[in-house]
Amino acid sequence: MNQGSQSSRSIAGLLHTLRDETTTLLQQEVKLATAEVSERATEFGKNALRVAIGGFVLYAGAIVFLFSLGDLVSVGLIQAGLSESAASWLGRALVGGIVGLIGWLMVAKAKKALSPENLVPEGSIRSLKKEKQWAEDKLQHSHESTT
Question: What's the pTM?
Fold first, then answer.
């Protein structure tokens, strides 16, 4: 009888140890996951800052390039016989107008894509309607078979 109670105590002890070690393991896993998420969030923030700075530098470069392109168009207009004073502003105005038109088209397309109609989950709605019809058919079929 002593052996049976000793066996049950050792099983109870093993279960208790298993519970404690599992709890400790889960706590350590949560700490590790928290540390990893924190490290990745910090790295993500640094990379996002680098992207933003790169974007500003790219924007500055694009502005300088567009001014140069405007000057190039002005030179072409002068070569075509336009006066220097008129060609100076007209070259930049033409480049600015073209860039503005491209920007306007991009914004219009994006606004259309952001319309509320595009937020409706069409596939899910179709699927739910099919499932509703299937359930109604099953209900009607089971009702007919019972009567």
Answer: 0.55
The DSSP string of 51-94 is HHHHHHHHHHHHHHHHHHHHHHHHHHHHHTT--HHHHHHHHHHH
Comparing C-alpha atoms, which of 73, 108, 103, 102 is closest to residue 88?
A: 73
Q: Domains of the chain: which residue ranges?
A: 2-114, 122-147
pLDDT tens per residue, range 56-72? 999 999 999 999 999 99
Instruction: Label residue 34 left, alpha or beta by phi (over 0 means left) and psi (-120 to 50 means alpha).
Output: alpha
Would you state the structure tokens that stand for residue 77, as one six-digit string? Answer: 């207009």
- Contact of 90 with 104, CB cutoff 8 Å: no
Residues 6+ apart with CB under 8 A from 11: none
| Residue 86 to residue 74: CA distance in whole angstroms | 9
Residues 6+ apart with CB under 8 A from 82: 90
Inter-CA distances, 30 with 23, 24, 33, 34, 37, Å: 11, 10, 5, 6, 10
